[in-house]
Amino acid sequence: MGVAAIDVVSLSKTFRDLSGTIHALGPVSFQVNAGTFTCLLGPTGCGKTTLLRIIAGLDSPDEGHIALSPGQGTRNPVVGYVFQQGALFPWMTVRANIEFPLRAAGVERDSRAEKVQRMLEMVELEGFASSYPHQLSGGMQQRTALARSLVREPDVLLLDEPFSSLDTRTSQLLQGKLRELWQDRKTTVLFVTHNIEEAVYLAGEVLVLGHRPGRITRTQSIRLTEPRDRLSADFTGYLFNLRQTFEELI
After folding, report:
1. What are the residue ranges in the chain where pLDDT is below 50?
2. If DSSP codes are grouped into helix, strand and coil, which group holds residue 153?
């Protein structure tokens, strides 16, 4: 039994506006062990983003609670977050965007420069350090956002459908890069997606969220040989199995 880096207990969220009350989420309970890669898979509108934002502290639940841990020790965990559209600062260069979390954390200048350079090399953007977001392709923008989220070496990395707006080839290339970075660092990852193939390729465990109000309807462990092959019989088997579950939700 691993150490839980994310512990979600009986979480619920309701939104109220002029049109009425929407019970968006819950109750939801689950754990993500330290150093694992978990995908939260579900149809559009099932509360995946709401759940991720609550875990990140960007929204508050109506009921339940969340505990985040670095996996070892008692310090407050460092959390990274990648938005669906990257959310880069348009007035900052690639280098400045990646450096921003370090500046905010008060990291001294020489150390910032070293860490940023390492991240630029890791996401293969060394030649675009002085470029602005509008000068980058969608894939390059998301690589910058990924580098910015990783530069502080987070204990927990939360990603909200970061590749959903990209073409298939670029999306698959970045999925490969993300999995490579995870294998190197073993950061705890919770990745939100509605793409079944993406979930099978990336995750060690998939949590399936049902229609609103979102609840965990199935937990599926993914055990595949590395490097993962999208055309293998085992991969196709997981894909078919999860697709059946997904179709039952529709």
Report:
1. none
2. coil
